[in-house]
Structure formats: structure tokens, C-alpha cells
């Protein structure tokens, strides 16, 4: 709870700045600008995972690593980062040709500099997580988010178009790396495979899993950019970012805290089950109303806040909101199964999805970005079943797991009924911004009321947990 408290405080303290940046930048830039950066992100996100090489997960999970081994892994991390930058220099032009976008080459080259810089951060940041130094991690992440937001707004105002998004991202990486290395500096040593063999083997499984995850989770952007073009990709990317922004603030808190916490209790399954169920319930109570609420008010939200130019994002936003409802609770399972040493299962599971997803998205693209968004709604719950099955087998039975979702699910259904009723009652000639505000108020009030009235025991338990952590 201390870790989540620090992480949550930092995330939500920067949320206002991040939202303000998104609104301002979206009004200054165009779907083409977002689409160009989205094309680069498809490749660069994959390379980013490879450049980390799974070393962070090994350091967090394998508590018996010596200082010498960690120093060798630090050197290995730097070497991989340099290699990924050189690879980007080679493929930048072919990527620009593939996406029919000449400007993409320079964008890829500039963004790739962050791999070399970020490689200095990988090991120190993982050590902070293993040592449960969540306050320091939260402060660094907040500084990065604020710096990136302010930089993006400033550069967009000065008319730098897509470079506002590119340079703000690179600047944030430079700042976060500098602060992390200052807080937890580590030396370097020449890698010797005999010393780090166990860590490298563990990292390999994690790396393959993460790369495969990236392939299947970003294949929609690849298909949209290649088949549908920059404008369609820009609208789809904007809808994706908008619906995932608040949810990722919640899941990012868990992703920052869970690996270190789970690793500390990896030999005690009962404690691990308690953490998994407790975090699942907590995330669902916060994320479910955001996702379903956004789906219900998508038209008024986009048209009133961002303008008519983003109207094409309304239907994809609604569909993606249904998908993010389930996605919000899934990041808890992978780190739990990782500390149970099921990395090989996770690796083959991710490889299978990396093969299936691109084909499905390509087929769905005949229906435009609406088809691609709809594919997530059908495909993701089916692909989550193997993770649920293994979790039920090793950590917690299905009855207890789904019981942890009861409060959020029932309360969200009540909220949805009330918001839909409010939409029909409100006069159509009301300004969209006013309609949006009324719907949000109705949704928030009914959701909070349902949780408090129907599940008072869960609320009391949550309060006791918070008081015990303070």
C-alpha cells in the first residue's frame, strides 16, 4: 500500500498536466501528425523492449544475484542499447518506404537515441524496484511526465508539428535516466556468461514474451498504418490513447509496484494470492468505471473537448473502452506468474498470440478502424483465458478471483443504466460540454453510491487497509 500510495500520488498529481497537454496538443496538431509518430512507435516500441533485454525482470526476481553479476548485466544492457540504435539507423529508410512516408526516417533516427540513453537506466531502475524504493521511482516518473507535457505544449505552440511529440518523448527519457542514475549509480564490468548464465536464461524467456506481446498488441497500429493510411491511423491512435490514458495511470501503478512485491513473497503462495486478489479488486474498482463511462459519453467527450476533426475516433473509442475494461486487470497476472517461474509458459503463450493477432487485424481492416477496434473486443477475452486458467491452477481458484470483481462489475452496470437514462432525458439542444458534465456527474454519483450501499464491507476493508498503511 505504501508503494501504491506513492505511485498513485505521483501519477494523479501529474494527470492534470498530462490531460492539459493532450487537449492543447490535439487542438494544435492534426491526425497526420499523430499518425506519423504512431508509425514510428510501432517499430520503436518493439526495439525498446529488445533493448531492455529482460534484464530488469531478472534483477527484480532473482534475489541471489551478486554485485559482480549486476555490474556485468549493466554493461550488457548498455551494449544492447547501442546495438538497437545502430539497427535503427539501418532500418529507418526502409521503414519510411514501407509506410510511404519520407519524414518517418528522421523521426525514427531521433527517437532511437533514447535507446542508448535509456540503457544506462535499466539496471538502476530495476534495483530501486527490487529494494521497494517506490517514492524515488514515483518522483522520477512524475518529473519525466511533467517535463514531456510542458515540452510538447511549448513546441506545438511554436509550430513544430509532429516534432513536438518526438522531442518531448526524447527529452523525457534523458531526464528520467539522469535522475535514476544519480539516485542509484552502478558500476560496469565485462560480462562473463558463466557468471550471468542463469540471469541471461531468465531474461531470454522474459524478452521473447515481451517482444511477442508487443507484436500482437501493436499489430493493429501496423495494419492501420499500412492498409488504411496516416489519417486513419491518427484517428485510431488518438482513440486508443484517449481511452488508455486514464486506465494506464492505474495499471502503471500496479506495474511499478507488483514485480518487486510479488518477488518478495514468491515462496509464500497464500500471500501471493492475497496480493493478486486484493490488487485485482482495487484496480477493477477504479478502472472499470473509467472505461465504461468513456464508452457511454464518447461522442460528447470527443466533439465537445477535442473538436469535430476527431469525429472518426468516436466509434473506435467506444469499442476500445470495452476491451480496456478487461485489459486493466490483466497486468497483475503476468508478474505473478513470472515469480512462480512460469516464464516458459508466458513465452509460448505470447508467441502464439503474435502469430494470430496480425492476421485477424488484417482481415478486420476491410471494415476500417472500426473493424480493427471491434477485433479487440472479440479477440482479447478469448486470448486471456490461458492466463486465467494458469492463475486459477497455481494461485487462486476461479470462484475467489471472480468474486474480487463483483463489486466493480455490479456497480458499473448500475452506473451505465443511469447514464443511459440521463442521455435520453437531457434535451438535445443543450451544449455538448454541459451534457458531458451532467452525464459524468450522474455516472460518478451512481457508481459511488452503488459501491457504498451494496458493498459496504468491501469499503470498510479498503479503509482499514489504507489506515494500516499510513
What does this structure look like?
The chain is globular, with a radius of gyration of 22 Å. It has helices at residues 2-28, 31-52, 55-61, 67-98, 104-119, 122-130, 134-157, 162-183, 193-228, 230-264, 269-296, 298-306, 314-327, 333-339, 343-364, 368-394, 398-403, 406-425, 432-454, 456-469. The mean pLDDT is 82. The chain is an all-alpha fold and 470 residues long. The N and C termini lie close together (9 Å).
Fraction of helical residues:
over 70%
DSSP, total strands? 0
Q: Tell me the overall shape.
A: globular
Major sheet: none
- Report mean pLDDT, rounded to a whole number: 82
Coarse structural class: mainly alpha
How widely separated are the two ends?
A: 9 Å
- Rg, Cα atoms, Å: 22 Å
Question: Counting H and I runs of at least 4 residues, what is the number of helices?
Answer: 20
**Portion in beta strands:** under 5%
Low-confidence stretches: none
The string of secondary-structure elements, in order, is HHHHHHHHHHHHHHHHHHHH
Amino acid at each position: 500500500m505504501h508503494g501504491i500510495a506513492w505511485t498513485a500520488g505521483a501519477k494523479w498529481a501529474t494527470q492534470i498536466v498530462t490531460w492539459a497537454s493532450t487537449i492543447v496538443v490535439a487542438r494544435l496538431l492534426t491526425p497526420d501528425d499523430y499518425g506519423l509518430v504512431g508509425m514510428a512507435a510501432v517499430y520503436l516500441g518493439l526495439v525498446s523492449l529488445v533493448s531492455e533485454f529482460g534484464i530488469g525482470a531478472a534483477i527484480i526476481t532473482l534475489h541471489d544475484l551478486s554485485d559482480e553479476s549486476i555490474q556485468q548485466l549493466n554493461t550488457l544492457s548498455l551494449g544492447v542499447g547501442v546495438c538497437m540504435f545502430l539497427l535503427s539507423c539501418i532500418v529507418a529508410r526502409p521503414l519510411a518506404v514501407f509506410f510511404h512516408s519520407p519524414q518517418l526516417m528522421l523521426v525514427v533516427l531521433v527517437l532511437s537515441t533514447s535507446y542508448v540513453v535509456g540503457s544506462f537506466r535499466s539496471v538502476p531502475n530495476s534495483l530501486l524496484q527490487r529494494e521497494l524504493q517506490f517514492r524515488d521511482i514515483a518522483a522520477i516518473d512524475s518529473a519525466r511526465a511533467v517535463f514531456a507535457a510542458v515540452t510538447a505544449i511549448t513546441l506545438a505552440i511554436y509550430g513544430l508539428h509532429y516534432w513536438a511529440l518526438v522531442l518531448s518523448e526524447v527529452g523525457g527519457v534523458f531526464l528520467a535516466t539522469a535522475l535514476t542514475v544519480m539516485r542509484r549509480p552502478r558500476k560496469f564490468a565485462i560480462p562473463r556468461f558463466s557468471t550471468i548464465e542463469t540471469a541471461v536464461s531468465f531474461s531470454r524467456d522474459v524478452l521473447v514474451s515481451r517482444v511477442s506481446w508487443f507484436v500482437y498488441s501493436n499489430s493493429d497500429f501496423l495494419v492501420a498504418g499500412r492498409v488504411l493510411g496516416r489519417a486513419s491511423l491518427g484517428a485510431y491512435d488518438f482513440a486508443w490513447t484517449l481511452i488508455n490514458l486514464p486506465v494506464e495511470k492505474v495499471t502503471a501503478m500496479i506495474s511499478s509496484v507488483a514485480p518487486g512485491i510479488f518477488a518478495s513473497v514468491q515462496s509464500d503462495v497464500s500471500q501471493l494470492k492475497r496480493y493478486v486478489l486484493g490488487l485485482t479488486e482495487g484496480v477493477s474498482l477504479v478502472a472499470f468505471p473509467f472505461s465504461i463511462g468513456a464508452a457511454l459519453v464518447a461522442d460528447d467527450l470527443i466533439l465537445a473537448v477535442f473538436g469535430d476533426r476527431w469525429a472518426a475516433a468516436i466509434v473506435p473509442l467506444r469499442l476500445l473502452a470495452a476491451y480496456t475494461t478487461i485489459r486493466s486487470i490483466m497486468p497483475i497476472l503476468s508478474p505473478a506468474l513470472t515469480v512462480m517461474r512460469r516464464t516458459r509458459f508466458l513465452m509460448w503463450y505470447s508467441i502464439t498470440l503474435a502469430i494470430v493477432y496480425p492476421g485477424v487485424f488484417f482481415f478486420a481492416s476491410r471494415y476500417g478502424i472500426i473493424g480493427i477496434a471491434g477485433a479487440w473486443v472479440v479477440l482479447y477475452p478469448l486470448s486471456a483465458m490461458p492466463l486465467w486458467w494458469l492463475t486459477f491452477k497455481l494461485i487462486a481458484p476461479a470462484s475467489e478471483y471472480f468474486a474480487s470483481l463483483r463489486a466493480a462489475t455490479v456497480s458499473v452496470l448500475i452506473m451505465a443504466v443511469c447514464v443511459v437514462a440521463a442521455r435520453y432525458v437531457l434535451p438535445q439542444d443543450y451544449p455538448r460540454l454541459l451534457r458531458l458534465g451532467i452525464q459524468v456527474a450522474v455516472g460518478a454519483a451512481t457508481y459511488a453510491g452503488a459501491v457504498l450501499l451494496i458493498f459496504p464491507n468491501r469499503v470498510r476493508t479498503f479503509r482499514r487497509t489504507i489506515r494500516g498503511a499510513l
